[in-house]
Amino acid sequence: MRRWGPADYRDMPWKNGGGVTRELLRRPHPTRPEGFGVRLSIATVAAAGPFSLFPGVDRHLLLLEGQGMALTRAGASEEVVVAPGQPLFSFPGEDAWDCRLLGGPVRDFNVMVDRALAEASLERVHLEAGARHRLAASPGTQWLYGVSGRVQVAGEVLAEEDILEWDAPGALELVGESEATVLIIRLMPRAGR
Question: pLDDT digits over 32-53, tens only?
Answer without folding.
Answer: 888 899 999 999 999 999 889 9
